[in-house]
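Our preliminary data section would be incomplete without showing what the modeling component actually yields. Below, a chain of 477 amino acids is followed by its predicted structure, encoded as tokens that our downstream tools consume directly.
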Amino acid sequence: ETPTLLRYLVKQRHWQRPDTFIRQYENAAHALAELENDRKLRTATISERQVERWQAGRIKTRPHPDQCRVLEFMFGYSVDRLFAPVPPSGQIGPPDRPMWRKEAGSDQTPPAGLSPTPWPSTARTAHREAEPECGAQAMAWDGEIAMAAEESARFARRAGANNVGEGVLDQLDVDVRRLAVQYLTRPPYVLFGELARLQGEVFRLLDGRQRPEQTTRLYLVAGQVCVLLAHASADLGHPYAAEAHARTAWLCADYAQHNPLRAYVRWVQSNVAYWNGRYREAAEIAHSGQAYATSGTARLRLASQEARAHAALGDTRAVHQALGVASEAPDPVTDDEPGVFRFGPGKAAYYASEAHCALGDRSNLQRAVSQAEQALDLFTRGPDVDRCPEFVAAARLDLISAYLALGDLEATDEYLRPVLATPPEHRTAPVVQRVAAISQALAQPEHAGRPLAGDLREQISLFCAYPASRELPSAAT
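Predicted structure:
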């Protein structure tokens, strides 16, 4: 095939690699922006795919006008000539306009017919051959000094460019706090879309340039958004997606050097493992996360999580040890722990209830009843923002599990009916799993023959058929 003039010139200058071409294009665009005082060209760039199309000559229309300007500035030829085939004679003819000459470090000579003026490096070579040795050395040093100065100036222009201001960062902080608070009352699928959009916005900002301290704040926001996405994914029954978001959140927390976020990520990871039956892994993750627990909330959350994971393994000693750590954790409410980031005493109480219930003996079952009742009392008397529908349902289900294990089917019926009235959008995966466990217990021989048990199992079957994940909009599934 006959190469275009652009491809011919690119090969002569050894710019065939897309990243090399893009770098030269960006430098030329910045120089043209300075020359013509056109601010929009200062950050002009192109994709590798675009470079490949141009070099292959696979274009149906002329490039964007600004791209045409940069290409003509780079090579000195009109765009029409650049994308036309090289004449069979090889006689290209002189450029249509002076070429851009800022090609520091280039040692290539121009192809025949391109320009009567030698390239800068060629000119230096010619002078070195003609002048005494000391004069050639002086000129070489002048060139090196000029190129080094240009590199410093280019770096200063890049470093001075800032794609995020303090106002943007403050707004992102406000957005995260709002979403963390709303997570307690709004269905997870409703918040998921907004969280995903915010994640994309923060990631795009991180792809730009900002001061180091601003980058640190962006990583913190990115980690908080990712961990909320992990939480929401788990609640909607997507554990693998939750783990992917949690890994990214951990990376961001590490870059931000933020221990409260590290602790929260470890809880989410432990929680995902717990609800997928990986109890030992859940206990180990929760225990390791306590090294990052700098607040009473974080310590209470992770120790409580560790206790119920050990309980699922039947390790009574480890359960009591973890609950002891939880009981000693203070409960300060700080501005850094809004909404779902805070782990209050009500939630700790139903975690303890779940742990005691899993141990199974009568003494522990009675403790489970007491802890679940305490949790419900705290949720009832607490502020409205703490009355998360999922938390209240979880506390009731722990109370139901304990009563059912104690053989009290009437109490089971009394507390189960409000749970079965939970709107579908709040039937998260953990709530549905808890309700399904109640159904399995009702199927045991000691209950199976009773009409009330059969009626409750039918209602549970209908409840589990409409989880929160079914409420997802069709576009998101």
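DSSP finds 22 helices and no strands in the chain. The CA atoms of residues 146 and 407 lie 88 Å apart. Preliminary results of this kind motivate Aim 1 of the renewal.
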